Structures are given as C-alpha cells and as structure tokens.
Amino acid sequence: MPYDPSKVKATSADPTPASRTPATGQTGQTGSNSRRIPEATVARLPVYQRILEELLRSGTTTVSSEVLASGARVNAAKVRKDLSLLGSFGTRGAGYDAAFLIDQIDRQLGLDRVWPVVIAGIGNLGRALARSHGFAARNFNVAALLDTDPAIIGEVVDGVVVRHPDDLLELAAQVPLAIGVITTPASVAQRAADTMVGAGVRSILNFAPQVLEVPPDVLLRYVDLSIELQVMSFYQSHLEEPAGVGHMPVIRSVGVTSNPTG
Predict the structure, then answer these.
(1) What pLDDT digit, counting tens, does each position of 130-175 carry?
(2) Containing domain of residue 154, as a range?
(3) What CATH number has the domain bearing residue 175?
(4) What angle do CA 243, 248, 252 make, to 5 degrees?
(5) Average pLDDT over residues 35-56
(6) Global pTM?
(7) Which parts of the chain fold into alpha helices (H)?
C-alpha cells in the first residue's frame, strides 16, 4: 500500500546523532567520489527526496526505510542499500532524519549548487520548461533561450530574452552553461546539440524524437513521451490477460545515457 504522509506519526529526532558524519563536502563515510553509485540508484534518489519532502511538510521529521520503500514502491532492503551509498547516518531502530537526508541527497545529486541551463526550441514545450518553477526550486537556472524563428527571437520568456543560436558562444562566455535542453523539431535537433557542445555544454536532455551524436564526454539523455506511451500501452494491453503482467510496474526512467557506465 502506498504511504500516506498524514498517517505517519510525527516524531522528533536528534539533529546530530553520533552515527552521522558532519557535512564537509563529502557524503557520509564513503566520500563523494570513493564509491560509484549505480545509475538505477541515482534514478531513485529524486523519488526518495520527493517522498521525504512530502513527509517533512506533513510534520514527520524521522522516517524509516519501510516508509520510504512504500512510497517508492521498492523493498526496504533496497532503500537501505541505496542510502548506504551516500554514507552512514541512519540510526538503527530510529530511522533517518528527514531534513538531514534531503540535504545529503541534494549534495549527492549536485543540487547544492546552481546549474545554468540553455533551452533550444521555444515552442510550446520550450516555453513551458522555461517557465517551470520546478527548475528554479532544484537550482536549475534557465540562463539562455534559443530559437531560429525571427518572430520569436527577441521575445522575453520569464525574464530571459530569446536569442539566435549563433549568439550562444557569446552567452556562454558571460555565463558558463552546464546543461542543455533540446525541444526543437527532430530535423534540427542535431544542429542544436552541436551548437551546445561547441559552447561548452556537457550535459544534454533531448526531447526531440531524434537520435543524436555527441562526444563521449557529453552526457546525453532522451525523453520521448511517445515511447513512454508505447510502454504503458504494452502493460495496459497485457494487464488482464491470464498470463499477463498482473500489476503495473513503476517505471520512472524516461531517458538513457549515451555513455552508460554499466
């Protein structure tokens, strides 16, 4: 049964239990770079974070691995294994301090710093992303907007002026850009990616239905909503078959990296 924050008893917790490691730029006993965190675990960390934030808003300050597992629809052992990769700060029998754990997940996900973002393709999706308050809440600062349509260039979207892609090098010289988001038509998506890479962008999130080529040192992830709908269609069509799937799985990842690490 999914967790319900309103039914979790609010408890207090010692803000500095002995089992925690002080925040010194590294996370817990493992250190931020001493142990590789699997991609599947990285994908679950934001899910845990969202559950923790909901619990904290409801007044719950300490949370068990069982509660996190219920909300994330995984088993408690997996939650404990995932969190152990961040360090040793849980207290046996008492659980995790929710606020502290959020801070540790933020640190591990790199959300303790601001990431300048450039969006290419200022159509409906690009505008929606540019105006997303969720970006700013997670320290993703939309610093540049690009489009080739003369009717769109010069518009101001949520305080940012839309510029031509030819201006990106100049913009990147003023604000080094970390992440690029592509929402262009498929036919120009590769060109947008090349422009971003040339300006120093080393992480790209591609919404365009187009396979892209990028250098091996660039992280590339895809978000293709039509593919996600096809996956959902499979489970929906097989759900009621006698030998079908029996239940709907939780499939949270909507992208694949171009240079997976195993």
Answers:
(1) 999 888 889 999 999 999 999 999 999 999 999 999 999 999 999 9
(2) 115-225
(3) 3.40.50.720
(4) 135
(5) 92
(6) 0.75
(7) 39-57, 65-72, 76-84, 98-109, 124-130, 133-137, 168-174, 186-198, 225-238
